[in-house]
């Protein structure tokens, strides 16, 4: 049996992100709705609400990937805890046909990502190596066959944000990893700029 080895800095990061999610839901969600009801509907108010909702959704997607793992090889199972599964959920490797491995890029650089693939060839649980000091050990103990596919940028972003994609419907394409990395960096930059602008508008608007 192994447990995910998460650095304490990531627990602090998770607490901060959770605070921002709750604070943002109040400041940019509830207060914006109250403001719209009080002042009336306008294009500017709706635009701010949509931008704030998108940022909240982005934060939720980020926090959803933070999981505490317990893998018991003798029982052929994995149990994880997350913001959406605070009491844990147990998965059995017999219900999966393999794993799909890829890389993602963030502000701290590239890191490994592993998905469990069910019997319908759909990616399920996402394990992000950026959080774990023992990611190689986690990948090693999960001995399911590796499924290899080269995703297009569209498929990559669908997998990144939705977390589910049918691998049987994907045709292997020419490696586009460098393009995907570039697109992802552009997206992160735009998202950060929108967040700053939204915050400034709410403060000084």
From TrEMBL:
Transmembrane segments: 12-37, 43-63, 183-204
Keywords: Membrane, Transmembrane, Transmembrane helix
Name assigned to this protein: Uncharacterized protein
Source species: Chryseobacterium muglaense
Taxonomic lineage from the root: Bacteria, Pseudomonadati, Bacteroidota, Flavobacteriia, Flavobacteriales
Entry keyword Transmembrane helix: yes
């Amino acid at each position: 049996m192994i447990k995910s080895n998460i650095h304490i800095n990531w627990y602090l990061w998770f607490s901060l992100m959770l605070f921002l999610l709750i604070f943002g839901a109040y400041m940019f969600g509830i207060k914006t709705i109250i403001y719209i009801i009080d002042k009336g509907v306008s294009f500017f108010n709706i635009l701010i609400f949509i931008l704030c909702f998108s940022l909240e959704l982005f934060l939720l997607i980020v926090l959803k990937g933070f999981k505490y793992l317990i893998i018991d090889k003798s029982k052929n199972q994995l149990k994880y805890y997350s913001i959406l599964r605070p009491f844990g959920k147990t998965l059995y490797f017999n219900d999966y046909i393999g794993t799909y491995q890829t890389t993602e890029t963030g502000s701290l650089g590239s890191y490994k990502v592993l998905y469990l693939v069910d019997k319908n060839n759909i990616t399920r649980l996402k394990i992000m190596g950026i959080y774990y000091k023992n990611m190689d050990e986690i990948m090693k103990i999960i001995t399911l066959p590796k499924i290899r596919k080269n995703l297009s940028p569209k498929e990559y972003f669908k997998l990144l944000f939705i977390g589910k994609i049918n691998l049987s419907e994907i045709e292997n394409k020419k490696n586009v990893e460098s393009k995907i990395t570039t697109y992802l960096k552009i997206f992160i930059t735009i998202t950060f700029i929108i967040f700053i602008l939204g915050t400034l508008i709410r403060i000084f608007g």
